[in-house]
Amino acid sequence: MYGILALSLKTTNWCNLNCSHCREDSGRNVAREYMSVDKIEDYIIQFQELPLNLSNRITIDGGEPMLPYFKKDENYIPTALTLIAKAGAIPVIKTNGTWGRTYTDRNLILKSLAKNANFTGRAITLNMSVDEFHENISGVSNIIADVVFSDYLRSAIHIEISGFNTIGSIVAVARLRSDLKEKEITTIDSRNDDFVAYNNNGGGIHVSTNYLNDIYRLGRAQRNFLYTVKEIMPGCVNTIQLDNEDNAVLNHTVREQVNNRDLASVLDCLITSFNRKQK
Ligand code: SF4
């Protein structure tokens, strides 16, 4: 295995969407359960002790990881984010962003994230899929607009949009930018596919869309050419994903049950299987 290793905590399998392409075994028809905070803490500690080159990002993932907010468990995500920040890592939440469609959910979640960022001193990165597979443009656009128009949110929340780097995702990003324009937000091209979005008072944010060396961001689609190519390239970011059923998955490719073993030995097995698969 080359490159650095990132940790993704798949806190739940439940998702409010039921995407046909989903390779996370997630959707509406699974239990609305999520990983305990104790388990999150244990996995973060074990990850930080691995003798490898580790990414400074730790991702809360799903399914739809905002589930606890919908179950009135409003402390769960802030507690998880605080554990990540305390470990010295950048907290990232991978979400489909559909909660941005309603003001009530948006207001609850964005304020909660910003409060946490102020508490820990670590801005939170919201990573949202924008592509041909998710019907979420209005939610994502509302979230970006709220952040762009608020000094408070701008300093606390960073926005990334990830897709599968296909023509479909390029079209979806264009739709997103056109939606933002209707909200009186100007977008200007930045490097690669990134853009800057700013309000009529000049307050702006950088929206990152391109992070090609990160396998994880290249998505979950089985037929993603770039995904396959990046898996074998040196210098890329590898991801170990740990879920609530104690599965450990490396680069969406090889899987091990944790079975009360420590993470270092689980990872050894995963790397061996992964390397065998690459030959
Ligand atoms: S691809 Fe993402 S949004 Fe779609 S069902 Fe899977 S986890 Fe949910």
Explain this structure.
This protein has helices spanning 37-48, 67-70, 76-86, 103-120, 137-149, 151-156, 167-182, 225-231, 263-278, and strands at 4-10, 54-61, 90-95, 124-129, 157-162, 186-189, 195-198, 204-208, 237-243, 247-250, 254-257. It is α/β, with parallel strands linked by helices and 279 residues long. It has one domain. An 11-stranded mixed β-sheet has the order 6-7-8-5-4-3-2-1-9-10-11. Strand 10 (247-250) and strand 11 form a beta hairpin. Helix 1 (37-48) packs parallel to helix 3, helix 3 packs parallel to helix 4 and helix 5 (137-149) crosses helix 7 (167-182). The protein is globular and about 55 Å long. The model is unreliable at 212-232 (pLDDT under 50). The structure holds iron/sulfur cluster. The site of iron/sulfur cluster has 14 residues, from loops.
Topology of this structure?
Layout: E1 4-10, H1 37-48, E2 54-61, H2 67-70, H3 76-86, E3 90-95, H4 103-120, E4 124-129, H5 137-149, H6 151-156, E5 157-162, H7 167-182, E6 186-189, E7 195-198, E8 204-208, H8 225-231, E9 237-243, E10 247-250, E11 254-257, H9 263-278
Parallel strand pairs: 1-2, 1-9, 2-3, 3-4, 4-5, 5-8
Antiparallel strand pairs: 6-7, 7-8, 9-10, 10-11
Helix pairs in contact: 1-3, 3-4, 5-7
Bound molecules: iron/sulfur cluster.
* SSE string: EHEHHEHEHHEHEEEHEEEH
Bound molecules: iron/sulfur cluster
Share of residues in helices:
25-40%
Query: How many beta-strand segments?
Result: 11
Spatial shape: globular
Number of separate domains? 1
The N- and C-terminal alpha carbons lie at a distance of: 12 Å
State the major sheet: 11 strands, mixed
Q: What class do helices, strands and sheet pairing give? A: alpha/beta
| Rg, alpha carbons | 18 Å
Uncertain segments of ≥5 residues (pLDDT<50)? 212-232
Q: Count the helices. How many?
A: 9
Strand content: 15-25%
| Neighbour order of strands in the largest sheet | 6-7-8-5-4-3-2-1-9-10-11
Mean pLDDT: 88
